[in-house]
Amino acid sequence: MVALSSVNLLSLASLARQKYPACQIVLAADRDLNGDGQSKAIAAAGACEGVVALPPVFGDWNDAFMQKGEEATRKAIYDAIRPPADSPFTTMSEAEFTAMSTSEKAMRVHEHYGEALAVDANGQLLSRYEAGIWKIIPPSDFARDVAGLFQRLRAPFSSGKIASVVETLKLIIPQQDAPARRLIGFRNGVLDTATGTFSPHHKSHWLRTLCDVDFTPPVEGETLETHAPDFWRWLDRAAGGRPEKRDVILAALFMVLANRYDWQLFLEVTGPGGSGKSILAEIATMLAGEDNATSATIETLESPRERAALIGFSLIRLPDQEKWSGDGAGLKAITGGDAVSVDPKYKDAYSTHIPAVILAVNNNPMRFTDRSGGVSRRRVILHFPEQIAPEERDPQLKNKIARELAVIVRQLMQRFSDPMIARALLQSQQNSDEALSIKREADPTFDFCGYLEALPEPEGMYIGNASIIPRQPRLYLYHAYLAYMEAHGYRNTLSLTMFGKGLPAMLKEYGLNYEKRRKNQGIQTNLVLREESNADWLPKCDEPAAK
């Protein structure tokens, strides 16, 4: 029987059951982007006690035949109508199970989970395929589940036996692959950003995250301004009405949506309270999925013991971290794609990658003591300068934007169909005037470098050292730095060695090339002080030199 329209599918299914009361009825339905074909087929199957078979592509079974071929289509139909296999733990006896070897018991556990288990590349973390994504299973939870299977059969067990089965299982099941970076998961399927094709979920995609909305193509004439007005008002206000700033914020949200941790960047949003920073964090959480986001402190990133809490999340939020000061070694390692050590309580330590985008939200920027450039190469600062008046704030803004999420996702996908455009926007923001200004406010040594300019040849100031007396800040670079720090009331100055090591990376952020040469009078650089140094902090000629 063929229903030429889903409108009469329900009545036709009921008629088929009346005519063939003893037969199995298979509804070979359409797989629609909007889910209409699936929902009507499920309703019809309920009315006639039938089975729904969906094609392995979006469209109808003829589309599957044309795209996949006869054999694959036939297999898909048979797989769809085959009744689910019983768990071996419902058919085995206690004696049969007890007589098995450890590897056989591990295989029965694998079968119980529908062969939907995998282990990470380090052979430590177990994941289970559910609803389109691979979810990490906490080791303690999985051990208890396996113990529950033993108990179901009334089979004797101990913690050692359970651990042995679990460890053997890790040697049997597939090793989890890295998800293809071109794929983005949605509730109703997977979008290939390289080809533009949308396909059903499959465990071979190895996705770890989903955006918690259904993907549908943009409607004609759809824009953020007209179809997501609440999001647009927030975006335009946060960007100060500047189109280029709006694009950077959208690029940051796309980075979260696409889980592009592999760009080796982290986001830091700064600004006064009430400027819209928390709304950006909420939108990012919606895009990543509530279950895929967690909050932490930067100390969590730095501590192997604390890092265990970050495993399995694709978005790590760091709220209110501006008082922290350190070199950010853990932050650099995670964002740089390096394996980091994890030392969970009561478990063996191991090394793993943490594939997550990191989003810090602070009133003031974090202070990093790293002078190697490792942090600055990864750090993208977004500053929201305008503090919204209390009477203008909308307490329901988050909920209103949540209702516009599907439009936001479609527009992000359309705007950044080439993901490298988003990456380029974020990289351009790193050394923008806005970002440099924020860094100068947070780091006095970096601010001092803003008073320098470069000559074509090393014919400028000498580096000098602390033992030269009296100080000559117009001749010696290190003396100029000490004079700057003293004029601004800073006590913790860098040693000459640390100052010299950090100079090249800081100057590079200003677009300056640092050169030096050794002469009889010392090491001469290509750096000189800008004119504004005289008015801002250099000692006046009639002032006595600092001793």
UniProtKB/TrEMBL annotation:
<dbReference type="Pfam" id="PF19263">
    <property type="entry name" value="DUF5906"/>
</dbReference>
<dbReference type="InterPro" id="IPR014818">
    <property type="entry name" value="Phage/plasmid_primase_P4_C"/>
</dbReference>
<keyword id="KW-0347">Helicase</keyword>
<keyword id="KW-0378">Hydrolase</keyword>
<dbReference type="GO" id="GO:0016787">
    <property type="term" value="F:hydrolase activity"/>
</dbReference>
<dbReference type="InterPro" id="IPR027417">
    <property type="entry name" value="P-loop_NTPase"/>
</dbReference>
<dbReference type="Pfam" id="PF03288">
    <property type="entry name" value="Pox_D5"/>
</dbReference>
<dbReference type="InterPro" id="IPR051620">
    <property type="entry name" value="ORF904-like_C"/>
</dbReference>
<dbReference type="InterPro" id="IPR014015">
    <property type="entry name" value="Helicase_SF3_DNA-vir"/>
</dbReference>
<dbReference type="GO" id="GO:0004386">
    <property type="term" value="F:helicase activity"/>
</dbReference>
<dbReference type="InterPro" id="IPR036390">
    <property type="entry name" value="WH_DNA-bd_sf"/>
</dbReference>
<dbReference type="Pfam" id="PF08706">
    <property type="entry name" value="D5_N"/>
</dbReference>
<dbReference type="InterPro" id="IPR045455">
    <property type="entry name" value="NrS-1_pol-like_helicase"/>
</dbReference>
<dbReference type="InterPro" id="IPR004968">
    <property type="entry name" value="DNA_primase/NTPase_C"/>
</dbReference>
<keyword id="KW-0067">ATP-binding</keyword>
<dbReference type="GO" id="GO:0005524">
    <property type="term" value="F:ATP binding"/>
</dbReference>
<keyword id="KW-0547">Nucleotide-binding</keyword>
<dbReference type="InterPro" id="IPR036388">
    <property type="entry name" value="WH-like_DNA-bd_sf"/>
</dbReference>
<protein>
    <submittedName>
        <fullName>Zinc binding domain / DNA primase</fullName>
    </submittedName>
</protein>
